[in-house]
Design goal:
alpha+beta; 3-stranded mixed sheet; homodimer; globular; 5 helices; DNA-binding; about 35% helix; Dna Ligase, domain 1; Arc Repressor Mutant, subunit A
DNA sequence: CAACTATTTTGAAGCGATCAAAAGTAGGCT
DNA sequence: AGCCTACTTTTGATCGCTTCAAAATAGTTG
């Protein structure tokens, strides 16, 4: 079986299920997200250009925004860096962000059920989501190839 | 005693202790941060204008940046919103951010020692800091005064 | 296939933050 | 006290990312 990643037919279904029209830009964007998790709009745009030449950058933003609204894609926005997007939305995982190069990696929450994600005093807030970000230096930034 | 908030003399000491020169813009910025926690550079600028007329916006950014580098101030950057700054740096607390109005509140970590702040697999990262943000709707955004 | 509406495109503007160089000033030293 | 030097402020411009707006295009339903 080769269905390790959703194939186009599945992507099309996802888009349709979200109540959105299936268009070339949207398919291209969603496909790009499968192969490159945690990418910026810019990088996605480059990838989309290859799959659907002539697609406008604005359409990439549109598609991403629509997907986020529809819950198909998650938007993460590390401080001081452009937005990044990922297709992994089902589970509640967190992110390691490199303060040097901006590289992002997924981390599953150690405790599964996220114990500290329910603050004692929510100050009248209706909490919708808890986000955990770990800041540090990634392996390659710590160990640049010595020349 | 009226020393509920650090007074100017203390602020001056803090700045000096950080190895920075004491200037009017810096004092004004640090003072503004005492009274208005979680404010954006813009808001701080407005406050500073009153205390030290003629101060440039750039100087506010400079001062804030220097303070952050020196560890006197913490920079928080909620997704989709301008940077905010707070003078509370000693303890490890987290933030509630209103998705509607952007209002930020402090929350102390329930468990004190932040159990989920040590991911099982750090993927080669040298983790410097863990940041927890709760997203939701604040009380006033949930309950707008019924007209 | 026609019509309606969502979506894409194009071009531009907006915003917050940052850069760069010149003018000014705090703090140490004599 | 006054000078000197390095650090800060100021001024003005610029930059990158994202969003806005209106016209053109294309997907979907009946």
């Amino acid at each position: 079986m080769t269905d390790t990643l959703p194939i186009d037919a599945d992507l099309e279904k996802s888009i349709r299920a979200a109540g959105l029209r299936v268009t070339a830009p949207r398919l291209a964007v969603l496909t790009a997200l499968q192969s490159h998790p945690h990418t910026s709009a810019d990088t996605i745009y480059a990838d989309v250009e290859a799959r659907a030449p002539g697609t406008a950058l604005q359409s990439v933003y549109n598609a991403l925004s629509d997907f986020v609204d529809a819950g198909l894609v998650r938007r993460i926005q590390p401080a001081g860096q452009p937005m990044r997007f990922e297709a992994r939305v089902a589970d509640n995982h967190h992110h390691l962000v490199c303060t040097s190069c901006g590289h992002v990696e997924d981390v599953d929450c150690v405790t599964g059920e996220a114990p500290c994600l329910h603050p004692a005093d929510s100050r009248g807030f209706a909490i919708a989501e808890a986000e955990v970000t770990f800041w540090g230096m990634c392996a390659s930034c710590r160990n640049p190839a010595v020349s």
